[in-house]
Amino acid sequence: MRGLTITGIPEIDRALAKLDAKLQKKTIKKAVRSALRPLEDEIVRRFPKDSGETAKQIKVRAGNKSRTAINVDVKSKDDNYIAKFLEFGTKNADGSVRIAARPTFRPVFDTMRESASKAAQAEILAEVERANNK
């Protein structure tokens, strides 16, 4: 599994059914962004720092658009290759290691996956309640 997927929770499905499609997406995005903030904070805290500029660019961002899914990621800016080099490492043309991998994103995600899932579910229900009360 590449990411965190939340599907088929009857309580959330019933609550979302009361909202129109556009408001459902907006509500879910807001809730998931909020639930991913602790992951963002932990990644930034653990990220190797030289000047600290790369760590400052790590944020919760909207992911690829899809008709069937809402994607929200914790990632560095797309044009910031330094974070990718540090996460995965690099090799020279002869296969020798140039920059050793120092993974940060994956270990944090692996340790915080369950808590992020539960937080996202709770946030979605809370956001739906707020939307229904408006």
If you had to describe this structure to a student in words, what would you say it looks like?
- The chain has 134 residues and is mainly alpha-helical.
- It has five helices and four strands.
- It has helices spanning 10-17, 21-46, 53-56, 81-88, 105-133, and strands spanning 59-62, 72-75, 90-91, 97-99.
- Strands 1-2 form a two-stranded antiparallel ribbon. The chain has a two-stranded antiparallel ribbon with strand order 3-4.
- The chain is elongated.
- It starts with 9 loop residues before the first helix and ends with a helix.
- The mean pLDDT is 85.
Task: Outline the secondary-structure elements.
Layout: H1 10-17, H2 21-46, H3 53-56, E1 59-62, E2 72-75, H4 81-88, E3 90-91, E4 97-99, H5 105-133
Question: What key attributes describe this structure?
Answer:
mainly alpha; two-stranded antiparallel ribbon; 5 helices
Can you give me a brief rundown of this structure?
This protein is mainly alpha-helical and 134 residues long. The chain is built from five helices and four strands, in the order H-H-H-E-E-H-E-E-H. The protein has helices spanning 10-17, 21-46, 53-56, 81-88, 105-133; strands at residues 59-62, 72-75, 90-91, 97-99.
Query: If you average the pLDDT, what whole number results?
Result: 85
- As laid out across the biggest beta sheet, the strand order is 1-2
The separation of the N and C termini measures 36 Å
**How much strand?**
5-15%
Summarize the biggest pleated sheet: 2 strands, antiparallel
Shape: elongated
Query: How many strand segments?
Result: 4
Instruction: Give the structural class.
Output: mainly alpha
Radius of gyration: 18 Å
Helix content: 55-70%
Taking pLDDT < 50 over at least 5 consecutive residues as the criterion, the unreliable ranges are none
In DSSP terms, counting alpha (H) and pi (I) runs of 4 or more, how many helices? 5
